[in-house]
Specification:
Strand 20 and strand 21 form a beta hairpin. A 4-stranded mixed β-sheet has the order 22-23-1-24. With 431 residues, it is α/β, with parallel strands linked by helices. It contains 12 helices and 24 strands. It starts with a strand and ends with a strand. The model has no long low-confidence stretch (mean pLDDT 97). It is globular, with a radius of gyration of 21 Å. The protein binds shikimate-3-phosphate (S3P). The site of shikimate-3-phosphate has 12 residues, from helix 5.
Length: 431
């Protein structure tokens, strides 16, 4: 399905942003590992997360949606699934589940995914898990078959910073008493650390000379709990960036996770001159959440250093759109990881911007964007089957001089079901 975003309408009002994707995967997986029945409020009901729900059911957990809209997960002793576990488009599902199974003696599972996921590197989890003693058959890509075993400890240096790798190692270590530590020179999102603690597992974090050290404590058994998931800052990025660039806009997203390891985009937009306001901050299931209000603003270009990138890794497509409207040269460094996301996002951003009349260049893993207050648009964008490329260029079309069309809208459902309806409720013309 093609979609076209047409400029001319300001975005105003409240954007209903669904639950955070990273936390939703974790709530399901940790619930499936916990003793007893956990309840999850605000679960993201997207393709990616539903793939995780099906996967944990295949391992023996019981998952149900209640009439209240909350989800319940009854943990179980995991059993080997009869069929391969299809992780769909989700790197988080694949990498976290591989870690969990690796540390379970007697359990075997084969993991598969769609074409995009099957092209993404898995060596980054396979290698450290192998050092812990895991038995994993296959190469650097899915499908992989994991034979759970009693694992030893590890002290892993997590470079490039990957929350999925860190989480896989922590999950693999739950079943043993050995020392399990992950050291991150640049911290990646810490939702696993925060949520494992909610489930009663001891996780220590320390600022050391080598970097941020995360280690499992003595108590590693998970017990059921109630989790409330905040709105996803990565999804909120698209309507909020659209509001920043579309004249006359004034939009708000409520209850968004503003964990400092996820707010790089919002800090950068503020530094670019965006009128952005946080209010109603509170802690929900260990995570900081707040309402984020953004008004249309004249933007200055930005310079993002490599060390700032992990806190906005999924928001670079949205940031690139904001940069296109900021008069002058923006520079974003350290984007190598974008090449191994749901698509080669660096390539997709570059060709999309160029097609819309924006001068941009990639030099190694640095992206340069020469922004102008007025952007031509008027292009058909190849999303390369990537949900975030699709949403980013629709946002651009709402503020460009001419409409922007995307070739494939279906994948938006992997992270933001209802995206088009939410944008229309703000006044956007997307057909
Ligand atoms: C995620 C971590 C990030 C992010 C991905 C979700 C997670 O990847 O890009 O969309 O849920 O842990 P890394 O593992 O590269 O940090």
């Amino acid at each position: 399905m093609k979609l076209t975003a047409t400029p001319g309408c300001p975005l105003r009002g409240e954007a209903a942003i669904p639950g955070d994707k990273s936390c939703s995967h974790r709530a399901l997986i940790f619930g499936a590992l916990a003793e007893g029945e956990s309840r999850i409020e605000g679960l993201l009901e997207s393709e990616d997360v539903l793939a995780t729900a099906r996967a944990i059911e295949a391992f023996g957990a019981r998952v149900a949606k209640e009439a209240t809209g909350k989800w319940s997960v009854r943990g179980a002793d995991w059993a080997s699934p009869a069929d391969p576990v299809d992780c769909g488009n989700s790197g988080t599902a694949a990498r976290l589940l591989i870690g969990a199974v690796a540390g379970m003696p007697g359990i075997s599972a084969t993991f598969t995914g769609d074409a995009s996921l099957s092209a993404r590197p898995m060596g980054r989890v396979k290698t450290p898990l192998g050092r812990m003693g895991a038995r994993i058959e296959g190469g650097d890509r899915l499908p992989l078959t994991v034979h759970g075993a009693r694992l030893g400890g590890i002290d892993h240096r997590n470079v490039p910073a990957s929350a999925q790798v860190k989480s896989a190692i922590l999950l693999a270590g739950l079943g043993n008493g050995a020392a399990v530590q992950v050291v991150e020179p640049m911290p990646s999102r810490d939702h696993s650390e925060i949520m494992l603690a909610q489930f009663g597992c001891q996780v220590g974090v320390d600022d050391t000379e080598q970097g941020w050290a995360v280690r499992l404590g003595e108590r590693r058994a998970l017990s059921s709990c109630e989790i409330v998931i905040g709105a996803d800052p990565s999804s909120a990025a698209f309507p909020l960036v659209a509001a920043t660039i579309a004249p006359g806009s004034d939009g708000v997203a409520r209850g968004v996770i503003v964990n400092p390891l996820r707010t790089g985009l919002y800090e950068t937009l503020e530094a670019m001159g965006a009128e952005i306001e946080l209010s109603n901050e509170c802690i929900q299931s260990g995570e900081l959440v707040a309402d984020i209000r953004i008004r249309h603003s004249t933007l200055r270009p930005c310079h993002v250093a490599a060390r700032q990138v992990p806190a906005m890794i999924d928001e670079i497509p949205a940031l690139a759109i904001a940069c296109a409207f900021a008069e002058g040269e923006s520079l974003i460094e350290g984007l190598g990881e974008l090449r191994v996301k749901e698509s080669d996002r660096l390539g997709a951003i570059l060709s999309g911007l160029t097609a819309c009349g924006v001068t941009a260049a990639v030099d190694g893993d640095t992206l340069r964007i020469f922004g102008k207050e007025r952007v031509k648009g008027g292009a058909r964008i190849s999303t390369r089957g990537d949900h975030r490329i699709a949403m980013a260029f629709l946002a651009m079309g709402l503020a460009a001089e001419q409409p922007v069309e995307i070739d494939q809208a279906e994948m938006i459902g992997t992270s933001f079901p209802g995206f088009v309806e939410v944008m229309r409720s703000l006044g956007a013309d997307i057909q």
